[in-house]
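Work Package 3 (structural annotation) set out to generate three-dimensional models for the target panel prioritized at the project kickoff. During this period the team completed the workflow that converts sequence records into discrete structure tokens, so that structures can be stored uniformly alongside our sequence database. As a representative example, we reproduce one entry of 184 residues exactly as it appears in the project archive.
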Amino acid sequence: MSRSLLESNTQRLPSVPEHNSRRRSKLRGSHKGFRRRLKYFYWRLVRMQGSSGAIARGFASGVFAGMFPLFGLQTILGVLLAVPLRGNKILAITGTWISNPLTYVPIYTFNFHLGQWLLNKHDLINLNFDSWQEVKGSGAEIILILFVGCFTVGLVSSVLSYLLGLWLINRFRTAYHLQRQRRK
């Protein structure tokens, strides 16, 4: 192989410093990427097909399902609730994301304490966790208390998320239509 052929091929390969400079520029502009993603989701919400009520009902059914400790089944439950309510199934799926590994403990602790208060079951405070038989015997009672709290919090939060979602969707769509009219 001739030397000129080798030199011509090596010139086409990118140099290492050029690659690193691209990487640094991506890191500096990461907040721009986040802002761009937010704009993308904003436009997806504004342009989403369906009535504002259907979109808000879908999100509310997802939020309701997200309040229950049915890990892995929350998404299915949210979509199944959205079907009879004629809600948006995609937003029902996203509504279940209200409970995630960062929010599990605070949500379910609050739900459990609310269930205790609603059912007036404060005798579980004296439960001896050293005795497995005692914990196992009161397991159904603990699950009942948790699900009563989850149902109550889910109902309240789904109504609030429906009202807030309806207001936001109408506001975004109005702003979008006003902006389109100004352009014309």
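Residues 7 and 13 are 11 Å apart (CA to CA).
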